[in-house]
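Q: What would this chain look like folded?
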Amino acid sequence: MIRNRCIDHHAAATEARYCLLCGAALKGRADKKFCDDYYRNEYNNTSQKDTIPLIKRINRILKRNRDILREALGNGVNIELHLQVLIEMDFNFSYHTHFRQDGYGNTTFFCYEYAFRLLRDSCVMIYKIKNLPLEGGALINTNIHH
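A: My prediction, written as structure tokens:
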């Protein structure tokens, strides 16, 4: 049975392959999909053109939120201020990079290395995370100091 798979795989590898964009015959690596870099880039740019504006818009909002938190915190370790201050600075509470919930049900929201937690009396605590390590693109330890 294994022998037949090897033969089938070899046969598939020798079949003619064509560029996904222009249809030209492909030569070279078995996983090659385009005849040159221009067509590869053109194909990828065209296939992503609907999602790129959305991603750019969200990234702009996240960057703006981060900048607002950085500005509000200044050089301090943490700051407690009224929620209205962030609202007046056009902070968008719908967008954050991630969040953590502690054992008491308190949620901390993050905008990259800056964090905020909603407090009593319409106040918010803002602080910066020190040494935010990343592993495989995922946050593994937030090392929160506030």
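The mean pLDDT is 82.
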